[in-house]
Amino acid sequence: MKQLEEMMAESEQRVETITIPSEGATLIGKAYWPVGDPKSSVIIHGATGVPQLFYAKFARWVAEQGHLCLTYDYRDFGASKQIHPRNSKATMADWGFYDQQAAFDALLQLAGTPKTHVIGHSLGGFMLPFHRNLDKVDKVTTVACGQVYWRDHHLPYFFMVIMFWFLLGPVATRVKGYLPGKALGLGADMPAGVYWQWRKWCTSPTFYTSDIGSVLPQMNPNPYKGPIKIIGFTDDDTAPKASIDRMEPLYKEAEITRQTLNPDDFELKDVGHLKAFTRQNAALWPEILDIT
Prior knowledge:
One of its GO terms (molecular function) is hydrolase activity. By secondary structure, the chain is an alpha/beta fold.
């Protein structure tokens, strides 16, 4: 019966494919419309190497709650891929600054809703301080997002980190001309420029600070001041607590709420870095959407 109700709800929803102009690129996104006028507009800024399709079930659920939800893929990746990643010049700064900004601007044009909610998964959560129009953001939720430094990690995951940043990752990227993520178990291939900048930030104790003023602009002098919920998970080896702690100074003028969620408290097997948006972990979704 429940499955039938979900199928009927999905059949009533409208999912619209949209094109989003970004600086030097065109992104492909999907707008999930609720039945009736949306209560608010929600955007999902995805994690590094995670296609928007991964967030589709969550986005449909958001629409079922009465909100417009926009997902999209970064340039030269997922549905936005127009060339082989070997030929892409994209960087993580392009994804986090230009593409995230362009997608949020597109969200504002889709519907004149009374509120906007930015949900940032990993990479999706730590670039907001660089964005324009922060006065048009009403609420932010970051999920498994931290300014990760390679020494933060614990055994045995630490060995995987060493391999990815100092051994297999650099060698494979130099040989192939792109990050062969599929072969390395990451699920997706990515442009070399994304990998090298990602590596630079995660192997520096100051993360992206050295790139501010060069490949990154200065942070918005009018910072975000609204409510932000910073969500971490006790079983997330990729974004440990030390990295999430570094998020708070980025949003020092915001109204910060911290949550470190234990899968056991939701009767879930595991969540880790990626699985908060999967259907089997849907018990977490009201915490992410922050339904009140």
